TrEMBL record:
The organism of origin for this protein: Subtercola lobariae
Cellular compartments per GO CC: cytoplasm
Statement: the UniProt record of this protein carries the keyword Cytoplasm: no
One GO process term, biological-process aspect: cysteine biosynthetic process from serine
Family, similarity comment: Belongs to the transferase hexapeptide repeat family.
Keywords for the protein's UniProt record, in alphabetical order: Acyltransferase, Amino-acid biosynthesis, Cysteine biosynthesis, Transferase
Pfam family of the protein (one): Hexapep
Enzymatic reactions: L-serine + acetyl-CoA = O-acetyl-L-serine + CoA
Top EC class, one word: transferase
SUPFAM superfamilies: Trimeric LpxA-like enzymes
Keyword Transferase: yes
Name of the molecule in the record: Serine acetyltransferase
Pathway given in the UniProt record: Amino-acid biosynthesis; L-cysteine biosynthesis; L-cysteine from L-serine: step 1/2
Length: 177
């Protein structure tokens, strides 16, 4: 598949995911024009590609900051984000440099995938496939969140969580679902 074909296939996939995940979405046109979380992800894909090329780190970083200004979503160009990720009501989402997000993840507004200090190396969370990150949740440090977990609204997650856990509280405790 050519690059342009892959690009448009991914665009269609993103629109379909937004339509499926958001019951308020009325049309693909509305999603295409009005969903800031989707716009932030599209810009991230571009900046992530730029970040991996020599001499393009600064332009990638500047473009990501411009996207932050436009969308209210801050995603570092080095972050790794899987397919079919949907950021719903994206305002205030922050995804740090060494964060890794799996496929089919749903992220609500105010979510932070952040660090806990000026470490070198891996310092942001790794989020598995099929995870739900509730509004205002904070996942901090080089932790791993297993596949199928749900993180409750405003939870502060500081430790690894096994697959299919429910994480709630401050600090969050993992409970089986």
């Amino acid at each position: 598949m050519r690059t342009s074909q892959r690009f448009f296939a991914r665009l269609r996939e993103d629109l379909a995911v937004a339509k499926r995940r958001d019951p308020a979405a009325r049309s693909k046109g509305e999603i295409l024009l009005g969903y800031s979380g989707l716009h932030a992800l599209w810009v991230h894909r571009l900046t992530h590609t730029m970040w991996q090329r020599p001499g393009l780190k600064l332009p990638a970083r500047l473009l990501s900051q411009f996207a932050r200004f436009l969308t209210g979503v801050e995603i570092h160009p080095a972050a790794v984000i899987g397919r079919r990720v949907f950021i719903d009501h994206g305002m205030g989402v922050v995804i740090g440099e060494t964060a890794v997000i799996g496929n089919d993840v749903l992220i609500y507004h105010g979510v932070t995938l952040g660090g806990v200090g000026p470490r070198v190396g891996k310092r942001h969370p790794t989020v598995g496939d099929g995870v739900l990150l509730g509004a205002g949740s904070k996942l901090l440090g080089p932790i791993s969140i297993g596949d199928g977990c749900s993180v409750g609204a405003n939870a502060v997650v500081l430790h690894d969580a096994p697959p299919n856990s429910l994480l709630v509280g401050v600090p969050a405790a993992a409970r089986p679902r």
